[in-house]
Write a structure and sequence with these properties.
There is one protein chain. By secondary structure, this protein is mainly beta. The chain has 1 helix and 8 strands. It has one domain. The strands form 2 sheets. Strands 1, 4, 5, 7 and 8 form a 5-stranded mixed beta sheet that branches. The N and C termini lie far apart (48 Å).
């Protein structure tokens, strides 16, 4: 019985410590410029169509940050025949311990170099191959 209690306490401590940023953890793999960390995003724009080049997204830091997304950097945008992949970026946090409640969503307006056309808009954090994202990271057209 005592071993079981210790195992539960140990597992609980592991879960809590997993969300503490000690500065030792690596940010998600990214094409982010120096000083940037990949974030996730949701589409805020309504009424997009094939001719759209302007859109608004809501960016949220994934890592523990005390509830704040912080400074949003210019995104990395990759175009191909079937997709437009938008990798949202946020400024790297200073070393420290942060609580792990959900971070706020920061709106960002983007102007694409090309119209959307019949391509999907993909959240870059979901690459490669959809990662652990719902609907493979497709943000438009709505699945």
């Amino acid at each position: 019985m005592m071993k079981r209690v210790l195992a539960i306490v140990g597992a609980s401590l592991l879960l809590v410590s997993a969300c503490q940023d000690t500065g030792d953890s690596e940010p998600p793999a990214s094409n982010a410029p120096e000083g940037g960390t990949t974030a996730t995003w949701q589409l805020l724009s309504e009424n997009l169509d094939a001719e759209s080049t302007a859109l608004k997204i809501g960016v949220m830091r994934v890592e523990c940050a005390g509830g704040e997304t912080g400074t949003v950097l210019p995104p990395t945008i990759t175009y191909n025949d079937e997709q437009i992949v938008i990798e949202a970026l946020v400024a790297t946090l200073p070393d420290g311990a942060y609580t792990c409640q959900s971070n706020d969503v920061v709106p960002l307006e983007i102007t694409l170099e090309q119209p959307i056309g019949d391509r999907e808009l993909i959240d870059g954090i979901c690459q490669p191959a959809g990662g652990n994202c719902t609907d493979g990271g497709v943000r438009w057209p709505l699945p």
